[in-house]
Design goal:
It is built from twelve helices and eight strands. The protein has 294 residues and is α/β, with parallel strands linked by helices. The protein has one domain: Aldolase class I (TIM Barrel, Alpha-Beta Barrel), CATH 3.20.20. The protein has an eight-stranded parallel barrel with strand order 1-2-3-4-5-6-7-8, surrounded by six helices. α6 packs parallel to α7 and α9 packs antiparallel against α10. The radius of gyration is 18 Å and the shape is globular.
Length: 294
């Protein structure tokens, strides 16, 4: 493997106080909670961290704080994507300067580039920094799908493009990526419920939301699968599946924040335009969540 960030990278939420400023006391508690619960690496400033409403200054302050709390116990990946290639390059250079172990960089959103445009965007980033780069393909948020051939072209040409986070339910694309890309290029599921199916097609692990809550169980599932205990892995997957689905009953990270508040880790506050779950929605979520926490 070109670069191993581990099997479970948690796309960490950003805890807020009542006034919606960053809650650093809760953040420290959360980081320690994640490390104790199966997280191999923490992704700071991903979509789950509410980056659309964080300033670049806040993202960097959060990263430096997390780095201090982590103190080398797990790797830290920093979200450094943008729909402007110039901004993405600058953010990637800044990530290197701050001491990130790797970066996650998303397919440009809203401006809907062609495959050639995507190739040029990620080529510019790969040439600008020597950090390990994880590509992030999420058509539901970007409006465009990066094709396996484009991912493979980048993976074959740039050794520092080490992995892809694939948030696309079409599993044939995983087979295509695995076939076209070098063997040492890692595939991560971008959806908790697709981790096991994607691993059966050659994925390495998951960039996860559910690991905020059931990371150790997910670790057991991955370990069971990789050691050939397929039925055991399936049993764990099916047990966790209702929670995987409920965590996306509203826009991410609204449900996972409500769940973390319910078990006493952080507050449920989100920045607008996101809104907290209402009482009925919480009842629905907690009826599932409570099966895992007694």
């Amino acid at each position: 493997m070109r670069y191993n960030a581990g099997e479970i990278i948690t796309a960490m939420i950003t805890p807020f106080k009542e006034d919606l400023s960053v809650d650093y006391v809760a953040l420290e508690k959360l980081v320690n909670h994640l490390i104790e619960n199966g997280t191999d690496a923490i992704l700071v400033a991903g979509t789950t961290g509410e980056t659309p409403t964080l300033s670049h200054e806040e993202e960097r302050e959060i990263f430096l704080f997390v780095k201090k709390v982590v103190n080398g116990r797990v790797k830290i990946v920093l979200g450094a994507g943008s729909n402007s290639t110039e901004t993405a390059v600058e953010s990637s250079k800044k990530a290197k300067e701050l001491g990130a172990d790797a970066i996650l960089t998303v397919v440009p959103y809203y401006n809907k580039p062609s495959q050639k445009g995507m190739y040029e965007h990620f080529s510019a980033i790969a040439k600008a920094v020597d950090l390990p780069i994880i590509l992030y393909n999420i058509p539901g948020r970007t409006g465009v799908n990066m094709l396996p051939a484009t991912i493979a072209k980048l993976a074959n040409e740039f050794k520092n493009i080490v992995a892809v986070k694939q948030s696309n339910a079409d599993l044939d694309l995983i087979s295509d990526i695995r076939t076209l890309c070098p063997k040492d290029f890692a595939i991560y599921s971008g959806d908790d419920s697709l981790t096991l199916p994607m691993m059966s097609l050659g994925a390495h692990g998951v960039i996860s939301v559910a690991s905020h809550l059931v990371g150790n169980d997910m670790k057991k599932m991955i370990s069971a699968f990789k050691s050939g205990k397929i039925n055991e892995a399936l049993e764990i997957h099916l047990n966790l599946y209702p929670l995987f689905k409920k965590l996306f009953m509203a826009p991410n990270p609204v449900p996972v924040k409500a769940a973390l508040a319910h078990i006493g880790i952080i507050s449920e506050k989100v920045r607008r335009p996101l809104v907290e779950l209402d009482a009925e929605e919480k009842k629905e979520l907690f009826s599932v969540l409570n099966k895992y926490f007694h």
